[in-house]
Write a structure and sequence with these properties.
Elements lengths: L1 E4 L4 H10 L6 E4 L4 E6 L3 E6 L4 E5 L4 H5 L2 H5 L2 E3 L4 E4 L4 E4 H6 L7
Organism: Vecturithrix granuli
Protein name: DUF2442 domain-containing protein
Length: 107
Amino acid sequence: MNTLVEPTTKRARKHQTMVRPNIRRAYVPTTALAQKVTCDEEMMHVALTDGRVISVPLVWFPTLADAAAAQREHCEIGGGGVSLHWPELDEDLSVANLLAGADWEST
């Protein structure tokens, strides 16, 4: 889903039209989908469909931090890219929480 970013006040809209009449409106992506997940000894890296890569410390997720490397690599991407699931570990994470910077203690 994309959100249209527009000036919020009448004065701001008028100013934008007068000063920059040929500037196109910006679309800001508000969702992103996981495409690939990899882990090293300290970090989990989630490649998103919009080109970004989110890297988070494994210590945020004790189950993943304590797992063997082979178990961490066996991640299933679900919901078209909105969730991550490790069946051998019974661990689930949401891409939205990773984007928000939510660690395991805050969810």
